[in-house]
């Protein structure tokens, strides 16, 4: 089932992603091509309070063409520790700093064409602590009951995969 890369061609190199086309030898000896978007990786943080409210953000996402409900998240800097990134991104997007983080695993966002892996953390304790938001980022934070957020998943209002995964994992832990 393994594929072996025999040649690679870089098509595009950007700030966040770069695209390569790989010639691969398949397990049966046949040749094929694979288009791969390389991504540095990212983090996402589920924040809950003592009353099972969850902190969601709203942000316009150009590829989706709409404002989306998500858990706070952000892209890793080169060689950045995921937990360090999670602390920074949460402060930038919401004004809260986690006291501690629980590692909830992670997800490959679309393993058929991208290397992006999102590390998911859970912050149950936090303090107010604001970092300046990136100049190209416009995010609004909102507290919602976790049960309402789960209904937003069921109704299709929340469609972001990291958010769905994170909320469902936390809901299971909390027996919601």
Catalogue the unreliable spans. Answer: none
In DSSP terms (H or I, runs of 4 or more residues), the helix count works out at 3
Shape: elongated
Please report which band the strand proportion falls in: under 5%, 5-15%, 15-25%, 25-35%, 35-45% or over 45%: 35-45%
Helix content: 10-25%
Give the strand tally: 12
First-residue to last-residue Cα separation: 40 Å
User: Could you tell me the radius of gyration in angstroms?
Assistant: 18 Å
**Widest β-sheet, arrangement of strands:** 7-4-10-9
Calculate the mean pLDDT score and round it: 95
Element pattern in H and E:
EEEEEEEHEEEEEHH
Structural class: alpha+beta
Topology readout:
Blueprint: E1 4-13, E2 17-25, E3 31-39, E4 42-47, E5 53-61, E6 66-70, E7 73-75, H1 82-94, E8 96-98, E9 102-108, E10 117-123, E11 126-128, E12 139-145, H2 146-155, H3 161-174
Helix pairs in contact: 2-3
How would you sum up this structure, described in words?
With 176 residues, the protein is an alpha+beta fold. It contains three helices and twelve strands, in the order βββββββαβββββαα. The protein has a four-stranded mixed sheet with strand order 7-4-10-9. It has a three-stranded antiparallel sheet with strand order 1-2-3, with no helix packed on it. Strand 1 and strand 2 form a beta hairpin. Helix 2 packs across helix 3. The longest helix is centred in the C-terminal third of the chain and has 14 residues. It starts with a strand and ends with a helix. The model has no long low-confidence stretch (mean pLDDT 95).
